[in-house]
Amino acid sequence: MSIFSLFSVVMLLHASFATATRPLVQIPEGTKWNLVNNSIRQLETEPSCRTGNPIDDCWRCDPDWETNRKMLADCAIGFGHNAVGGRDGKFYVVTDSDHDDPLNPIPGTLRHAVIQEEPLWIIFDHDMVINLNEELVMNSYKTIDGRGHYIELSNGPCITLWNITNVIIHSIYIHDCVPAGNALVRDSPLHYGFRGISDGDGISIFGARYVWIDHCTLANCRDGLIDAVYGSTAITISNNYMLHHNEVMLMGHNDDFLADKNMQVTIAFNYFGEGLVQRMPRCRHGYFHIVNNVYVGWKMYAIGGSANPTINSQGNVFIASDDDSTKEVTKRESPLGYTEWKEWNWRSDGDMMLNGAFFTPSGQETPGSYAKASSMVAGPASLLTDIIPSAGVLDCQIGKKC
């Protein structure tokens, strides 16, 4: 690929993803310039609402998306596709962003909504910046749906999914999450307990299953942006925009926790953007389908792991930085080194490697070796440069296609 073509691809990806997301963070000057050019191009030719992204194509063409919010639950793909969230329950409207009581949550607050026993589809009645006092410990069968408003969760402890099932989190800006704890926190109307110090994750998934996190923007948390540990499985992480963070995603509790051998996670259509260092994701045990994502300029590595995870990387775009020491996409941690990890099944299938990026494969090449790490049909990597993709929180306006 020529230098000009490479530059064009990088600039197109930066501009396209930034245009489709609400400008929640300061945009670098180079991207601002491309935003202007991209807007002009869109005015010249009205783009189709069909993008080739099967999640977005399922619901974003509907101008009545606000009336038909729960249709979103039928649009999930990957290992978390059975996550129904609060689809079968009532709507709960959050009206109060200022009064977070971890022990006795006030009706109308996000905390009061997420601890209820029955399924709920949680929406908001105005733009909100929510600063929590303790972890937001959720109950099962809940959807947090921020579409139509600017919903920010920041500068405090954030979301915890602890031994629950069926959760959808959509269109929330989560950033600057910090540890908290040594406090009493309620997790249902009839139960509260003492919580130790949390890690400071954006979203912590602990022993949970059937989880779908879609179109969120996550940045600059104390620990991970999204961590899934302790036997969590049936998870899809899709269409998110992640930026300005060190250890982005940890998948797996520790090398000795064998229950994570059953973990299955799909990571699809995400944009791993500026200021990310490592763990996109970092995997232990389990099966990981990493498909149709865009990676831009990681500072250490993009995909890593230990304890023999199976990694199926398909149709991604990896754009290395200009630093010659960070061209490799992969990193393995093994006490025995190559003699051990050469047997781990890691493959790169149809990925686009730009600016010197390279993926080190290992293990078997047969498709059957990746059956448990296959969750959807991967589109070609060129799909991500031929369309106007979107990631992160969407600027959805009521009465219009989102």
3D structure, described in words:
This protein has 6 helices and 31 strands. It has a domain at 61-288: Pectate Lyase C-like. The protein is globular and about 55 Å long. It has helices at residues 3-20, 29-44, 54-59, 110-114, 338-341, 383-386; strands at residues 90-94, 120-124, 128-130, 136-137, 142-145, 151-154, 159-162, 165-170, 173-175, 183-188, 191-195, 203-206, 209-214, 217-219, 226-229, 233-238, 241-243, 245-247, 249-251, 264-268, 271-272, 276-278, 282-284, 287-291, 294-296, 303-306, 310-314, 317-319, 330-332, 346-349, 352-354. By secondary structure, it is α/β, with parallel strands linked by helices. A hairpin with a 2-residue loop joins strand 10 and strand 11 (191-195). The longest helix has 18 residues, at 3-20. Strands 1-2-5-8-13-16-20-24-27-30 form a 10-stranded parallel beta sheet. A 9-stranded parallel beta sheet has the order 3-6-9-14-17-21-25-28-31, covered by helices on one side. Helix 1 crosses helix 2. Keywords: Calcium, Lyase, Metal-binding, Signal. InterPro entries: AmbAllergen (IPR018082), Pec_lyase (IPR002022), Pectin_lyas_fold (IPR012334), Pectin_lyase_fold/virulence (IPR011050), PEL (IPR045032). One of its GO terms (biological process) is pectin catabolic process. It is an enzyme of class 4 (lyase).
Short description:
By secondary structure, the chain is an alpha/beta fold.
Main sheet: strand order = 1-2-5-8-13-16-20-24-27-30
How much helicity do the residues have?
10-25%
Mean residue pLDDT = 89
Number of β-strand runs: 31
C-alpha Rg (nearest Å) = 20 Å
Distance between the ends: 34 Å
> What spatial form do the alpha-carbon principal axes imply?
globular
Percentage of β-strand residues: 25-35%
CATH topology description of the domain at 61-288: Pectate Lyase C-like
Uncertain stretches? 1-12, 14-46
The biggest sheet, with number of strands, parallel, antiparallel or mixed sense and barrel status, is: 10 strands, parallel
Assigned CATH architecture of the domain at 61-288: 3 Solenoid
EC number: 4.2.2.2
Keywords: Calcium, Lyase, Metal-binding, Signal
Signal peptide: 1-20
Catalytic activity: Eliminative cleavage of (1->4)-alpha-D-galacturonan to give oligosaccharides with 4-deoxy-alpha-D-galact-4-enuronosyl groups at their non-reducing ends
